[in-house]
UniProtKB/TrEMBL annotation, chain A:
Residues 113-200 form the ATPsynthase alpha/beta subunit barrel-sandwich domain. It comes from Mariniphaga anaerophila. Keywords: ATP synthesis, ATP-binding, Hydrogen ion transport, Ion transport, Nucleotide-binding, Translocase, Transport. The gene is atpA. ATP binds at G239, P240, F241, G242, T243, G244, K245, T246. This is V-type ATP synthase alpha chain. GO terms for molecular function: ATP binding; proton-transporting ATP synthase activity, rotational mechanism; proton-transporting ATPase activity, rotational mechanism. It catalyses: ATP + H2O + 4 H(+)(in) = ADP + phosphate + 5 H(+)(out). GO terms for biological process: proton motive force-driven plasma membrane ATP synthesis.
UniProtKB/TrEMBL annotation, chain B:
InterPro entries: ATP-synt_VA_C (IPR055190), ATPase_F1/V1/A1_a/bsu_N (IPR004100), ATPase_F1/V1/A1_a/bsu_nucl-bd (IPR000194), P-loop_NTPase (IPR027417), V-ATPase_su_B/beta (IPR022879). Residues 346-436 form the ATP synthase A/B type C-terminal domain. It comes from Mariniphaga anaerophila. Residues 128-323 form the ATPase F1/V1/A1 complex alpha/beta subunit nucleotide-binding domain. Residues 36-72 form the ATPase F1/V1/A1 complex alpha/beta subunit N-terminal domain. The keyword Cytoplasm does not apply. PANTHER family: V-TYPE PROTON ATPASE SUBUNIT B. Gene3D superfamilies: 3.40.50.12240. One of its GO terms (biological process) is proton transmembrane transport. This is V/A-type H+-transporting ATPase subunit B. Keywords: Ion transport, Transport. One of its GO terms (molecular function) is ATP binding.
Length: 588, 439
């Protein structure tokens, strides 16, 4: 769709950020245009064309815009710029570098370069002259915050090419011509370290996308132990406000075993993004000893920033993720929240006066969401290396109702469901992930089961299922106790209930603000679970139901002190001993 | 807003609804204001030469030959130190009989702060109310609403918080305030001798509802002036945001937009976020903190207005009458301050977070015990003790008439722990128990 002459047009109508433009030539759906308003030019995207009128959604405020204003179409879709220097940057939804903007307030029509064009990168060639290459193949490598940032044949290039020239090892700026390739007809293309890609299209430069099979450790016990997510997996976290969605997401992004973490703050609170800005440069990555910010990219399009750019922001994040995946890296992408993105779609659909679907969302909402989730995944690249994008989105269901369209549509697309429960949050049982309603479909994959047996332990899956059974039985026992009264049920019911409470307090509940408890490595999770299950398997002698609760409260207390102590430390062992002693007092 | 000599005057309306008029006009800017027979209006839609204006006062009595002139600018406010101590209507005109304000003219509803230029909020705002300071600590730069039933004393609690919070400026944005409440605020601030640091923008129930749409932007433009230009800490009180949202739905309804949940416009979330997100801590020391009121109908927080608000604000405060002690308390279960983690245990004593959590857990156990009691079951010894604890905790900590400092609140709670429970039942980290346990 590249055009020689740019199509132009003039504004004929304005409703909020929807602008109608009468055009003098061809325009494409989703094509980008700029509307001039005084000295400023406002970026916009075509979302509908009727006859000679293109409907464009403007990524900025349209205050003061008049009919007759000139519009220039750019001949390309909304694109991101990909190259070294993206890590630890803070972008808005359109990939403008927020740090480069002047002043305290965002200025309308100010677009900044996402890359640093002056910085020199130490380039090492990987490919050599004469090699046959195709889109996504690695030409060379630069060191970006100690990540091997691969310089690739641009994703846009179709067909196979032969390398004619490639620069030797050395320091180059991103715009330097690092290679020349030649297609089958002998036409030459000069390549730099920079390429562009339209965000709404998936990058397809890989060989194969198998089912995910490897566990992705997050350090969050109620995920890793009960409902694990995989490398390249998809999950979603719905929950009413105040149930700890954001705290959970931050915990995952701090601790997860990923090379690159992309945080898309999509229509959420600005102070939450500021928290990431403030904390990540200070926090140490437990695996590399470097600062977390060095492997993090933040796409901040907070709730007060323009709505149309909010819609773009999740795509921008995903495309950057796909770029790093093509380098053979493990990417974790977190979007908070996909409901805001859906609402942005709704606002636009509403202005376009489209017939509404459920709750006034556009009819194709479900398709749009599925399509987006499908861009995550584990891949084998053309050279046999592997890369992955694990995607976890939060959903903010209106009124806490999980039957609303965004939650329902997401449920169809995502494989892990971490439902946050208001009741758990009210009783401060954090993370408030409901252990009974939540699920991970990956646990049913034979390849995941095999992987868990090999890496965690042969009996692991059985233990996990057992813990789930105990939780379910505990819930049933509690319901019975509530109906029949404490002394209306056999003492065994109390024991069953308290055994599930033990798992709840020791395994499920985790203090995200405690240095030690906040992140639990898999090895420790396994140790604690089998320890807890030992207690569950033991039989105890109780004379009265009140003894059951007071005994288990003491047991829980010792376990909690263990959770708060460094693994295998003296303190830890001390409490473990105290626990053993305590257990003997009631042993049957 | 006088019309000027060179302005073109239009005299032919093609369309009139309850809130909008449409006419043919050229060279009109989006969002700009106009006067229609002396009534203030704003451009909300342009299609070709058809310009639709939203009339803030309503369209009653507007004839098809009304005089329409455009001002070529969005709604504005004059800002200067003269604002302090004054009362204005929704248009920023004085209503206290005082002189016009001299100052710099600023557009209202200005762009948002670049997120990378914000500073993480980190200054505790002490209110003396333990239900807030202990369990739901407020931080400067935060935005938090009271979710209240219309009969609850939210305006009183808000005024109390405002006066104790030691802000440099307090800006009141009153939307659909009853005249009585308006006078209440005026009196309380006056009696406290605080009038010189208060700016009020008031739309009372006597004024047309659509005018309310201007109030938050006016209040926040004034707040930004004091916070950015003067580096002051500014507290903005917005009451009642439910009435603001109702005005939004009136306008969107008149413009034939498809309503989403609860007949609210589909853009409700963004509209509310634009206001609340003005809360900010600037690196230079100035800050804007927003405390708002969202009234609920029948306590329903799943309604679109409180629901969307909850997703935007950094927590919410609930008031509830505790029948055991006959006082209004800050509900510890449903109230939440999201930013409290930034200050508790840091600017307050180290035991604050754990004490807070344990006390609430025990309070929840008491609620379960009460349910048991109501269902006619026998209570265990533990249940009895939680109930006793809960009553004293309500009275000495949660009641809104408590006014003590945070250390005292913590000491009181430890005393209650020691009085009613064993150490293992409280389940607090060992080293803290050793240090603070009172038996």
């Amino acid at each position: 769709m590249e055009k020689d002459n740019k199509t132009t047009g003039k504004v004929v109508g304005i409703v909020s950020n929807l602008v109608m433009v009468e055009v003098d030539g061809p325009v494409a759906q989703n094509e980008i245009c700029f509307i001039s308003l005084g000295n400023e030019s406002l970026m916009a995207e075509v979302i509908k064309v009727v006859g000679k009128v293109a409907y464009v959604q403007v990524f900025e405020s349209t205050r003061g815009l008049k009919t007759g204003s000139k519009v220039e179409f750019q001949g390309h879709l909304l694109e991101v710029t990909l190259g070294p220097g993206i890590l630890s940057r803070n972008y808005d939804g359109l990939q403008n570098d927020l740090d480069k903007m002047e002043g305290i307030f965002l200025k309308r029509g100010e677009y900044t370069d996402p890359l640093n064009r002056e910085k020199k990168w130490a380039f090492k060639p990987i490919a050599k002259v004469g090699d046959e290459v195709q889109a996504g193949d690695w030409l060379g490598e630069v060191n970006e915050n100690d990540q091997p940032h691969k310089i690739m044949v641009p994703f846009k290039m179709k067909g196979s090419f032969k390398i004619k020239e490639i620069v030797p090892e050395g320091e180059y700026i991103v715009d330097h011509n690092i290679a020349v390739v030649e297609d089958e007809d002998g036409a030459e293309t000069r390549l730099t370290m920079v390429q562009k890609w339209p965000v709404k299209l998936a990058v397809g430069s890989y060989k194969e996308k198998p089912r995910p099979f490897k566990l992705l450790e997050t350090g969050v016990r109620c995920m890793d132990t009960l409902n694990p997510i995989t490398e390249g997996g998809t999950g979603f976290i719905p929950g009413p406000f105040g149930t700890g969605k954001t705290v959970l997401q931050h915990a995952i992004s701090k601790q997860a075993e990923a090379d690159i973490v992309i945080i898309a703050a999509c229509g959420e609170r600005a102070n939450e993004v500021v928290e990431v800005f403030t904390e990540f440069p200070e926090l140490e990555d437990p695996r590399t000893g470097k600062k977390l910010i060095e492997r993090t990219i933040i796409i901040a399009n907070t709730s007060n920033m323009p709505v149309a750019a909010r819609e773009a922001s999740v795509y921008t994040a995903m495309t950057i993720g796909e770029y790093y995946r093509a380098m053979g890296l493990k990417v974790l992408l977190m979007a908070d929240s996909t409901s805001r993105w859906a609402q942005a779609l709704r606002e636009m659909s509403n202005r376009l006066e489209e017939l509404p679907g459920p709750d006034a969302f556009p009819m194709d909402l479900s398709a749009v969401i599925s399509n987006f989730y499908s861009r995550a995944g584990f891949v084998y690249l053309n050279n046999g290396s592997t890369g992955s994008i694990t995607f976890i989105g939060t959903v903010s269901p209106a009124g806490g109702n999980l039957k609303e369209p965004v939650t329902e549509s997401t449920r169809k697309a995502a494989r892990c469901f971490y439902g946050l429960s208001q009741a758990r949050a009210d009783s401060k049982r954090y993370p408030a992930i409901d252990p009974i309603d939540s699920y991970s479909k990956y646990l049913e994959y034979p390849e995941v089961q095999e992987n868990l047996a090999r890496n965690v332990g042969d009996s692991w899956l059985n233990e996990v299922n057992k813990a789930k059974d105990v939780l379910l039985r505990g819930k049933e026992a509690m319901e019975q106790i509530n109906i029949l009264g404490d002394d209306g049920v056999p003492i065994g019911f109390h024991e069953t209930f308290w055994k599930s409470e033990l798992i709840d307090f020791v395994i499920l509940q985790q203090d995200a603000f405690d240095k030690i408890d906040s992140s639990t490595p898999m090895k420790r999770q396994q140790y604690m679970l089998s320890k807890v299950l030992d207690v569950v398997d033991s039989s105890f002698a109780f004379n009265h139901f009140e003894d059951v609760s007071s005994f288990f409260k003491e047991v829980i207390n010792e376990f909690k002190q263990m959770n708060y102590s460094e693994f295998d430390s003296d303190n830890f062992k001390q409490h473990e001993e105290a626990l053993e002693k305590l257990l003997k007092t009631q042993a049957n | 807003m006088e019309s000027q000599a060179f302005q073109k005057v239009y005299t032919k309306l093609t369309n009139i609804t309850k809130a909008t008029v449409t006419l043919k006009a050229k060279e009109i800017g989006y969002d700009e204001i106009a006067s229609v027979n002396g009534k203030l209006a704003q451009v909300v839609k342009i299609t070709g030469d058809d310009v639709t204006l939203q009339i803030f006062e309503g369209t009653e009595g507007i004839p098809t030959n009304a005089h329409v002139s455009f001002f070529g600018k969005p709604p504005q406010l004059k800002v200067s130190d003269e604002l302090a101590g004054r009362f204005f209507n929704a248009y920023g005109d004085p209503i206290d009989g005082g002189p016009e304000i001299q100052g710099e003219v600023r557009d209202i509803g200005s762009p948002s702060v670049n997120p990378v230029r914000r500073k993480q909020p980190s200054n505790l705002i002490a209110t003396g109310i333990a239900g807030i300071d202990l369990n739901n600590t407020l931080v400067s730069g935060q935005k938090i609403p009271f979710f209240a039933d219309p009969d609850q004393p939210y305006n009183q609690v808000m005024a109390m918080v405002a006066l104790r919070a030691k802000a440099d400026k307090i800006i009141l944005g009153g939307m659909g305030l009853t005249n009585d409440d308006y006078l209440y605020f005026k009196n309380v601030f006056d009696n406290a001798g605080a009038l010189d640091r208060i700016v009020s923008f008031v739309n009372t129930t006597e004024n047309p509802p659509v005018e309310r749409l201007l109030v938050p932007d006016m209040a926040l433009t004034a707040a930004e002036y004091f916070a950015v230009d003067k580096n002051e800490s500014v507290l903005v009180l917005l009451t009642d945001m439910t009435l603001y949202a109702d005005a939004l739905s009136i306008v969107s309804n008149r413009m034939d937009q498809i309503p989403s949940k609860d007949s609210m416009p589909g853009s409700l979330y963004s509209d509310l976020a634009k206001i609340y997100e003005k809360a900010v801590q600037f690196p230079s020391g100035g800050s804007i903190t927003i405390i708002a009121v969202t009234t609920l109908s029948g306590g329903d927080i799943t309604h679109a207005i409180p629901d969307n608000t909850g997703y935007i604000t950094e927590g919410q405060l609930f008031l509830r009458r505790d029948s055991d002690i006959g006082k209004v308390i800050v509900d510890p279960f449903r109230s939440l301050s999201r930013l409290k983690q930034l200050v508790i245990g840091k600017q307050t004593r180290e035991d604050h977070p754990q004490v807070m959590n344990s006390a609430i857990r025990l309070f929840a156990d008491a609620a379960n015990a009460r349910t048991k009691l109501e269902n006619g079951f026998d209570l265990t010894d533990y249940d009895e003790r939680t109930l006793k604890f809960a009553k004293e905790y309500s009275d000495q900590i949660l009641a809104i008439d408590v006014n003590v400092d945070t250390d005292t609140m913590l000491d009181i709670t430890w005393e209650l722990f020691g009085k009613h429970f064993k150490k293992a039942e409280v389940a607090i980290r060992e080293n803290l128990v050793e240090k603070y346990w009172k038996s």
